[in-house]
Amino acid sequence: MSHPTIFDVARRAGVSKSLVSMVMRGATNVSDERRARVIAAAEELGYRPNAAAQSLVRQKSFVMGVIVSDLHNTFFADVIDGIDNAVRSVGYRALLVSGHLNADRETEALETLLRLRADAVILAGPAVDIDDVVAAAASVPLVVAGAVSSHAAIPSVTTDDLRGAALAVDHLVELGHKKISHIDGGDALSSRLRRQGYEAAMRRHGLEPRVVSGSFTRDGGIHGAQTLLAGDDEPTAIFAANDLAAMGVLSVLHDSGADVPGELSVVGYDNTAVAQSSPIPLTTIDQPRTELGEVAARLALERINDGTDVQSVVLEPTLVIRDTTVTPTHSRQ
Amino acid sequence: MSHPTIFDVARRAGVSKSLVSMVMRGATNVSDERRARVIAAAEELGYRPNAAAQSLVRQKSFVMGVIVSDLHNTFFADVIDGIDNAVRSVGYRALLVSGHLNADRETEALETLLRLRADAVILAGPAVDIDDVVAAAASVPLVVAGAVSSHAAIPSVTTDDLRGAALAVDHLVELGHKKISHIDGGDALSSRLRRQGYEAAMRRHGLEPRVVSGSFTRDGGIHGAQTLLAGDDEPTAIFAANDLAAMGVLSVLHDSGADVPGELSVVGYDNTAVAQSSPIPLTTIDQPRTELGEVAARLALERINDGTDVQSVVLEPTLVIRDTTVTPTHSRQ
DNA sequence: ACTTTCCCCTGGAACGTTCCAGGGGAGATA
DNA sequence: TATCTCCCCTGGAACGTTCCAGGGGAAAGT
What we know:
The structure is a homodimer.
Chain A: H1 6-13, H2 17-24, H3 32-45, H4 51-58, E1 63-68, H5 74-88, E2 93-98, H6 103-115, E3 120-124, H7 131-134, E4 142-145, E5 156-159, H8 161-175, E6 180-183, H9 189-204, E7 210-212, H10 218-230, E8 237-240, H11 243-255, E9 265-267, H12 273-277, E10 284-286, H13 289-306, E11 313-315, E12 318-320
Parallel strand pairs in A: 1-2, 1-3, 3-4, 4-5, 5-11, 6-7, 6-8, 8-9
Antiparallel strand pairs in A: 10-12
Helix pairs in contact in A: 1-2, 1-3, 5-13, 8-9, 10-11
Chain A binds a DNA duplex through residues 3, 5-7, 15-19, 21-22, 25, 29-31, 34, 49-59.
């Protein structure tokens, strides 16, 4: 049950602990014969270096701590893939702690990672008040991924929500739509940006924006769609705050017998799994999630290595055209 | 940037390192005055105990390692919630490593956790060949969650797929369906069990089972549904291997203009987010995911504490009735 | 034959904790 | 006054590594 140490290996191989250490770290100035003996002994005993002891003496853990605000959101799965890739290639390991969408739990997660002496910490979509985190940032490089950091000392990597909303509007306008309504996502920062992007793009096209309030949930989409259908000036296209809300819109349209996309086009945001697996695959805005993680990891690694401050990064979203958007039918136009 | 140690705190508080250690661990036999001084000093310096050093000397890390086979699958998000809850309440921390649905990466993840000297490891839905893991099980308690372990030395926690399939069939039969087809999920163990459960339940009701091959993906559902619709004996209900496949079925039915659930009822499996957020919310079989994690964590903790071997556990699935299943229309019956 | 060089190896100190044996001093007891 | 308790505190050893200074011996140079 208990773990063999470097001494156990040394004894079995008939060499000193130092020689075992050298072999394990791949030093070159070791005779082939001794090296083979050490490797054999280590194998036989099932020896594994104790990372805690290594971390202590090396003053470095080669651990990239990652706090995942919400594991239920597959958005972060891709971000983590990106982090993991970037980090593995330079000999680091990504260790994840779940934040459970809860500020206290995130603070706790950060504490755990700091005690473990992670060399840097990436906050993936933090819900925690960033000010609580700033103090910690004094002892470890910190990077925020997928949310804007409100604090200058903490760099963040995000995508451009203003631009994403413009992409959606441009696409619909190009198809010939003029009456394009937006169901917004509430008070969250990214919701505000998407709304502003929508409004600006509409005006740029000489169209009148029309926003109804909603949320980042299926129900938000349902309410928004109901409001829009009840009005006397039905739109020909709806741009929802995210995919979940778009699914709500689709369900209202399905129940009311409206034909999608024949009568009404729908665009979501985020390109989540539901957008793909929906009965009618959803046109949506994609964020480069994996890249988001990769860039965040790179920033963090840079800060570990030279300690210099790094800039925040904003990445470009893209449009993914699927089956919920077409040219509006003439009768409705 | 660098972290203060127990000595820094001791110097600032004017006491010995041992006293600081005692205060940090909440020992009672310390005078109030000294305790206050130590706490103040620790606070001022931003002192955080070094978990690596603690782990070394205590010969215990209070880390529960978790290998998550697939972060993109929200199934595991709930499992992890369960693990985290169970583990936190006894002073442990769950540290996650992503397996990226890849046997090599999982082996690597296990290696990482073993080097960190996690006190136990939970494999959540492992894709790795369990035999590769058995050797590791000699040095650390191991528990498999959400998949059946083929090895006696490694206990597992799963839900009863045979029973889940029976639940689906019973529900449809109760509604009056007789022609119930199953689109299976391929070769995976759980797919086989669901198919067997379906077949057994059908025979129990005196009905003839009809299985078409598919997979655990949207495409699998699409192909299966196309096969069924092309045949001359259309079913009145389809039981898909999982929710994703069911979404594929729904999309084929949507395209062909078939009314769901009026003409055809559909049942999925897993109760994933798509089941809820689908335009027509999906009737499906739910696995007690959180409980799965909790039980796995409890088994692991038991093995840490008394080292005795523990039994595998099988939990009960439940039926979640939503909008894709109704009594078949007379004309079709 | 003596020194130098080089290769391969070794022991000791250090990393930041915990825990244990023991010590100083105040108050109680004789 | 001398002894005993008890409370609070301290220093040292240990945990499993890495890294450094240095050592032994063979080969090479003088």
